[in-house]
Amino acid sequence: MTSLFTIAWIYLRIGLMFVGGGYVLIPLLNHIMVEQYRWLTLRQFLDGLALSQLTPGPLAMLATFTGFRAGGFPGALVATVCIFLPCVALMLLVGRNYERLKKIDLISSTLDGLLPAVVGLVAAAAWNLGISSLSGLKDFLILAVGFAVFKWTKISPMFVILGAGLVGFLIN
User: Fold this and answer.
1) Which of 22, 26, 55, 147 could connect to 125 by a Cys-Cys bridge, CB 3.0–4.6 Å?
2) Is residue 58 one of the residues assigned to a domain?
């Protein structure tokens, strides 16, 4: 069992990196949870990631799950609080002054520089997940249909995910 201090420190650091949304963190979460601490197997990580997409705050739910695996209920609570604490504190500090702050050239330039890096990190996360979870023609077909339905219809992503899960269940 991992100490609560270790869980808190890990999730505070992850929370500080939440720039650009949770998907940017997928490679980092995979490295920490699967490779470094071995709290989850790759399969558990991918399953947890897929299931967490059905909930609000998907990667926070994954943090709660991993915190529970690492430290029981107290670990889940600490992981959940600590992953949100940095961004909540930052939003409380910056939120009401954002319009004024973004007019400062240094801050505007920094935000403009972050955007391509965030897109690159999301693309890297998609690539890593694809390599580790797409193994056969069936997987690529489900991926293509899910992408098409999501891209060219107004169907909720929740129904796309549930439908893909049902198709996977029925095929196996």
Assistant:
1) 26
2) yes
Q: How many domains does the chain have?
A: 1
Residue 134: the pLDDT is 86
Report how far residue 57's alpha carbon sits from residue 61's, in angstroms, rounded to the nearest whole number.
6
Alpha helices in the chain (DSSP H): 4-16, 26-30, 42-52, 58-94, 98-101, 105-133, 137-152, 157-171
Low-confidence residues in the chain, pLDDT < 70? 18-22, 24, 56
- The amino acid at 65: F
Q: Using CA atoms, how far apart are residues 58 and 89, in angstroms rounded to an integer?
A: 20
Domain that holds residue 8: 4-97
**pLDDT value of position 19:** 58
Note the residue count of the chain. Answer: 172
pTM exceeding 0.90 = no
Tokens of 52: 């967490």
**Tokens standing for residue 136:** 């056969």
What does the DSSP 8-state code read for residue 104?
A: S
User: Helix axis angle, 105-133 relative to 42-52, nearest 10°?
Assistant: 120
